[in-house]
UniProtKB/TrEMBL annotation:
GO terms of molecular function: lipid binding
Keywords for this protein: Acetylation, Cell projection, Cilium, Cytoplasm, Flagellum, Lipid transport, Lipid-binding, Membrane, Phosphoprotein, Transport
Residue ranges of every copy of the START domain listed in the record: 22-204
Keyword Protein transport: no
Example GO biological process: lipid transport
Classification via CDD domains: START_STARD10-like
Organism: Conger conger (Conger eel)
SMART domains documented for this protein: START
Protein name (record): START domain-containing protein 10
Compositionally biased spans, kind Basic and acidic residues: 249-262
Amino acid sequence: MPVQIPDDADFTSFKEQCESLDGWTARYNKGAVTVWCREEESKTIQKLKMRIVCKDVMAETLYDVLHDTSYRKKWDSNMIDTFDIGRLTVNADVGYYSWKCPSPLKNRDFVTMRSWLPLGNDYLIINYSVKHPQYPPKKDYVRAVSLLTGYLIQSNGTNCCTLYYLTQIDPKGSLPKWVVNKVSQFVAPKAMRKIYKACQKYPEWKRKHNPSLKPWMYPEQNTLPCINVADLTVQRADSLENIDESGLSEEKSHNNSEEEET
């Protein structure tokens, strides 16, 4: 399938999915964080949505944090590696991301096409998986598939914003029930709070690390090599190896509940 760079209708549709509660079941609601799950017809698809209210963070700051791969290495402890591969347009690129899965599952990675759009008081970033000829699946990772993943940031005034994170992925494996429960009850809320804390520390960090460098806002700063969209294809889940991890039992990797809330 040819790769299509998202247009305004795609961004609008994503925003509507973030805001709509139809078909979503709340699995966690504590403090400023809410997590919803959605049952899909395919048992292999995991669809999750999260929301956090950030009371002392500007929407523009949150947008910068989600874009800044150099800073991400400072706060995203689940990440193993991330890097930008190349650019497609002034607001679309291709990148790589790998992350640690709960033990004893195999770690996953993605190659995705990402696109972004500031829209009035809203900021949107969305991605889906693509195949890049120079970045095939690795033997030490399970190549997962993002069908649609992204962020919606909504400004709630001068120093307050709301972040939605919606992900629809095929992890390429039959996952045990405890994984899904752990993600919705512990991993997801903790990740949202981690982003919030990262936003609070970002302005000070950025002042010391190329403060004027923001290629997601200033395309003329982008030094990534250009990629021809015709060289990419949509990553189909059925072309990747499927592994069965449903029988794996959870290793003793629980942090104490107090740490989960920090």
